[in-house]
Amino acid sequence: KEGVPTHFVRREDDRNQTVLALKIVPLEVIVRNIAAGSMAKRFGIEEGTPLKHPILEFCYKNDELCDPFANESQITALGWATQEQLDVISTI
């Protein structure tokens, strides 16, 4: 096995597969190596500016709320993910 762990177990045939049941972590994870899009606009940085190190951002996946930004403290306090889950996400 290589790569990112997933819920996929095996392909049964052309239309069916076996997967593990899971609880969705309701987060969008954004990794930025250069300033772009909303991040560039939010901080007034020119598009394409290289960053000194990658920036990891989280958004709560909720269309009605327009996917608001959330920090690790908010995520764990609201029960969207555990600190252990965030640690795994941060290392992938």
From TrEMBL:
Pathway given in the UniProt record: Purine metabolism; IMP biosynthesis via de novo pathway; 5-amino-1-(5-phospho-D-ribosyl)imidazole-4-carboxamide from 5-amino-1-(5-phospho-D-ribosyl)imidazole-4-carboxylate: step 1/2
GO biological process, one term: 'de novo' IMP biosynthetic process
Classification via Pfam families: SAICAR_synt
UniProt entry keywords in alphabetical sequence: ATP-binding, Ligase, Nucleotide-binding, Purine biosynthesis
Enzyme class: ligase
Keyword Chloroplast applies: no
Domain SAICAR synthetase/ADE2 N-terminal residues, every copy: 2-90
Matching InterPro entries: SAICAR_synt/ADE2_N, SAICAR_synthetase, SAICAR_synthetase_CS
EC number: 6.3.2.6
A GO molecular function held by the record: ATP binding
SUPFAM superfamilies referenced in this protein's UniProt entry, alphabetically: SAICAR synthase-like
Database matches in Gene3D superfamilies: ATP-grasp fold, B domain
A cellular component annotation (GO) from this entry: cytosol
Protein's recorded name: phosphoribosylaminoimidazolesuccinocarboxamide synthase
Species assigned in the record: human gut metagenome
